[in-house]
Amino acid sequence: MTRVAFIGLGNMGSGMAANQVKAGREVVAFDLSADAMARAKEQGMSPAASAGAACKDADIVITMLPAGQHVREIYMDAILPNAPRDALLIDCSTIDVDSARTVSRDASMQGFRACDAPVSGGTAAASGGTLTFMVGCREQDFKEFEEALKPMAKAIIHAGDSGAGQAAKICNNMLLGISMIGVCEAFVLAERLGLDGQKFFDIASKASGQCWSLTSYCPWPGPVPAAPSNRDYEGGFAAAMMLKDLKLAREAAEMSGADTPLGGAAEALYNELVGRAGGGKDFSVMIELLRGRL
Ligand code: NAD
User: Which residues does the annotation mark as catalytic?
Assistant: First the structure.
């Protein structure tokens, strides 16, 4: 039976690891949180005493951790010293490109195959096994990584060499952060001009203003029933997560010399939003900041 070590069983990791169990794989789990470990046990995983212990005899090691520092430390202290050399190492966390390349380089210098495989899709897609994975790895290793990721995925795309998955993720999310602000500004202006929100949606969603932020996560309550705006902006993609991704995009832009003025402006606005409203609400709550209600 394929043995998967899963490290980081939070909002995303818990559902992802459960889908590995459903696929008939043995999952050995580790998280610093006792609650997460108890939930993992209920979901049919074997709890490990440490991240290093989880990696022993693993065929696949998957990490789903908050940030680059956590991933670098776990790779150095637990994974590389303990995992078998033929194990596939997969980091699904959203982290900076530099950390992704560093852990992948360190792993391959020790003879491992490693990839960065960040995801698009929130907790519902993690539980439903419908995430989109953007994979950064050597071309010749992609097929095996694809097989390892399948129980958790709707789509698995090879983005390029190591770090390319993270690059794709932060470019996509910078675009998303900017487009959401654009949609919010348009609704606020429409409102001030006396244009009905539903009418504006009906027109823009069939005109050149159409985009995902408008038609899937419409910040104006009503036109898109499943959007978080209908639930007081609860659930969805937390504003704090968007701020984290915009910071990663800015760091990557500074490192590479790219000019991203709208990405910078979006980061400043999300920083203000999180400062005033906290980071827990869906990122479309930006409309309330622009309306002057926060
Ligand atoms: P989370 O905070 O819910 O989970 C992270 C888990 O990692 C926690 O359970 C924590 O205890 C554990 N952890 C931290 N350090 C650890 C260590 N040293 N050893 C073992 N466990 C450790 O976060 P999340 O929402 O699951 O997000 C995880 C990653 O996925 C992040 O990088 C995030 O940016 C990315 N992501 C999240 C979403 C989302 O909608 N939540 C969507 C796409 C990508």
Answer: 169
Q: Give me the pLDDT at residue 254, please.
A: 96
The Cα–Cα gap between 28 and 7 comes to 9
Query: What's the pLDDT at 174?
Result: 98
Distances in whole angstroms, Cα of residue 214 to Cα of each of 176, 188, 211: 11, 13, 5
What are the pocket residues of ligand 1 if the criterion is a CB atom closer than 6 Å to any ligand atom? 7-13, 30-33, 36, 51, 64-66, 70, 74, 93-94, 119, 122-123, 237, 241
- Work out the pLDDT band at 235, boundaries 50, 70, 90: confident
Question: What pLDDT was estimated at residue 277?
Answer: 94
Ligand 1 pocket test: which of 32, 132, 172, 237 has the largest number of ligand atoms within 8 Å of its C-beta?
Answer: 32
Question: If you measure from the C-alpha of residue 100 to the centroid of ligand 1, how many angstroms do you get, rounded to a whole number?
Answer: 16
Measured CA to CA, the distance from residue 171 to residue 236 in angstroms comes to: 20
26-39, pLDDT tens digit by residue? 999 999 999 999 99
- For the stretch 69-116, pLDDT in tens is 999 999 999 999 999 999 999 999 999 999 999 999 999 999 999 999
- Mutation probe of ligand 1 site: the residue of 6, 7, 9, 11 with most atoms within 8 A of C-beta: 11
* Beta pairing class for 60-63 and 88-91: parallel
Task: Give the helix ranges, DSSP H, for the chain.
Answer: 13-22, 34-42, 51-55, 68-74, 80-82, 97-109, 123-128, 142-149, 164-192, 197-204, 212-215, 239-256, 261-277, 286-290
